Amino acid sequence: MSDDGRKIRAKARANWTIEKKAVKDLPEIEVIDAPPNVLIALCTQLSLQAWAMSGKPLPTYTRENMPIKVFRPSDNRS
How far is CA 73 from the centre of its chain? Predict the structure, then answer.
């Protein structure tokens, strides 16, 4: 990822609206009383549907080769 690309995306995010709310002011959420295996199955189903809507194929890389970047609290990210 180029530094110019980073700057362009940062400029685009500069006008994003941010709302700060207390937890007590948030709308109530639906809680599903289900065992963990059911909740994981729901997440899997939602993830597959999201990928399908993107029009992109599912990634085929292995877990060891996943494209990630780890940010530690000690990292200087300025």
Answer: 19
The answer to whether the CB of 39 falls within 8 A of the CB of 32 is yes
Q: What is the pTM of this model?
A: 0.44
Chain-centroid distance, C-alpha 10: 17
| Tens digits of residue pLDDT in 11-66 | 888 888 888 888 888 888 888 889 999 999 999 999 999 999 999 998 888 988 88
Q: In angstroms, rounded to a whole number, what is the distance separating the alpha carbons of residues 38 and 32?
A: 10
3-class secondary structure per residue, the chain: CCHHHHHHHHHHHCCCCCCCCCHHHCCCCCCCCCCHHHHHHHHHHHHHHHHHHHCCCCCCCCHHHCCCCCCCCCCCCC
